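Dear support,

We are seeing what looks like truncated structure output for some complexes. This example has four components. We would appreciate it if you could run it in full and send us the complete token output so we can diff it against ours.
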Amino acid sequence: MRENKSERIRIKDIAIKAGVSVGTVDRVIHGRSGVSEASKKKVEEILEQMNYQPNMYASALASNKKYNLTCLLPLHTQEDYWMDIEAGMKHAVSTYKDFNIRLNISYYDQYESGAFAEAGKKMIETMPDGVIMAPSSEEETKSTALQLKEKNIPFIFIDSNIKSLNPLSFYGQNSHSSGYFAARILSLMAEHNEPVVIFRLIYGGKLGSNQQRNREEGFREYIRNNCPGIKLYELNFYVKNPENNEKLMEEFFSAHPEVNCGITFNSKAYIIGEYMQKIKRKGFKMMGYDLLRRNVKCLKAGSIDFIIAQQPTEQGQSSIECLFEHLILKKEVKPYNYMPITLISKENIDFYLDAHVRTNNI
Amino acid sequence: MRENKSERIRIKDIAIKAGVSVGTVDRVIHGRSGVSEASKKKVEEILEQMNYQPNMYASALASNKKYNLTCLLPLHTQEDYWMDIEAGMKHAVSTYKDFNIRLNISYYDQYESGAFAEAGKKMIETMPDGVIMAPSSEEETKSTALQLKEKNIPFIFIDSNIKSLNPLSFYGQNSHSSGYFAARILSLMAEHNEPVVIFRLIYGGKLGSNQQRNREEGFREYIRNNCPGIKLYELNFYVKNPENNEKLMEEFFSAHPEVNCGITFNSKAYIIGEYMQKIKRKGFKMMGYDLLRRNVKCLKAGSIDFIIAQQPTEQGQSSIECLFEHLILKKEVKPYNYMPITLISKENIDFYLDAHVRTNNI
DNA sequence: TGTACCTTTGTGTGCGCACACGGATTGATT
DNA sequence: AATCAATCCGTGTGCGCACACAAAGGTACA
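Here is the complete output from our reference environment:
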């Protein structure tokens, strides 16, 4: 009998100690049938006692099982944020390539009612082993989530959460806290309690996303609690009529020339930044969200002061890792994973861009 | 012949295509001797052409090689920052447990001349496969680095870098940029260009660490460039005489009652925070570094406004991963890995604490 | 007592790879 | 022609595990 040079406990060690064969131990570990109560109890005892930790690599090698993961995201054409999420997922999948993991990404039109449910149905027909979704509204998402539950397919929400649908896990930012934090920073910029304008993105008469609403709520809560003297204006843009944006801004600023500070809770701060650059207005203090290429450009040009980022790459990567740990390593995973709320300015942005591919020499 | 159901290319596939046996392919891959030029060339061609990617898990399983990694850190008694680094390293090691990686951590007294070199010598005698070090001064560190180079043992610098000693990689923050960024934030807090005091930690007549000096330089550079009107005071604490700290502060603030804003470039901002709480002075605006428990307490109590963190856990984790990729996966690693410069306040700190163990329910 | 059937258990093979061993071929030397 | 060394190459075994298969033991019934 070869002795075990490493300290790691093998199935064989368990088998010897329990006085059975490796086959029996294997059956107990995998909960397969065909084991007497006595043997089962004995083996379970030893497993517990020796704290057996299977070698998942050997396991994956032997089982040769394939895993199909599916991801459902909003349709985006070159929208950096979602592309970063995809990049993070792909990166994680490639590091697990020896575990036979395949990732399939499909899309839904977030502005078309019913699109999510339809895409979800198609997805379920492929019987994936695990799912990652950026949810739509609760009503839209519900049926898909229920079907997944019924088929015992684990699913993760990314970007925004719907707790009532009980996902395996959630990866994203706490929008409310994020708005609250943004307010703290903005209030520093708004000296003498000067007024602030909130730029909003409206679709179909409502705010375009839950995130936007929650962030604004957090923001207003901070202002209410800490600097109620700050007057808040609102300026609404309309997703459907982007060509009107400039006119809206012109109107607003000629009506309120004293406003020198603004924030937006969607990812399109560049609308304002680029406008300020165009009209050559300097010193307007602006905050926004997400490191889209156009936002970064404004940040570096000085037309946006601060951006709050939500680590899309890490979200993507972590969500794949989560499914990996759940499906393959069979570990317990954390139900909530709030990404850090990071403040980015011209001065520290270099350490946030392309952290995964950067090989610079600063 | 069993056919290859997965798309992954195996050694066997290479062997068949090259018209040789797996043994020969194996020899080529590992650069072992005993292969004719003709075979070698042929195999290398096919390897290239089919883009062979070895299954590192199978490889590790078969080779059963053990890796001893060693880490050399400053002596610290419950100093949270270094403990976080250790925790990150241990966490990474545990995820790689099936690769037979062992981590040994040893310490040196950073305030005793010669201690680093001595600890380094002892470490090298154990012939580790890879090393992670928090370097001391360049002179102190040099001999150890040279010996490691000579023995072909890869080493990583963590926390602070000494480029001239040419480590395999570096994980840490860019101190200069970090100070620069801190100045941007502080200048927002210092309305009307009010004066600012820099609290420094002195050891043996000099600043206690490179980091401290570099951060201060970056800070001063920003102030010089952007708000030269801000007057900068200095208040020196002495590592050897902590009992004098309060007295020094009393003296300083009675001489300069108008100073209401301060920053420190070491991790001991809590000295000031706790003092302000003790004398019940509110509203003093304070910035500092690192999420030590005592700093966090002050942050939550409001006696410190902002902390810049440098992700010690991630540093530890990433540095182990780096050695893993270099030694086992034989991948190329990045020579510089600057951690993001993150701004933490009461409002976002919850998303930075214990990110690895948190299972909360915010 | 034999047969059929079920339950319980052990054994063998292969996953992709590393590495030891031994076989084949060649050329040089006696 | 025989011997030997050197070079080159193929095969076999095992890493820890999953899983198929077969063997062993027990029970029921004719």
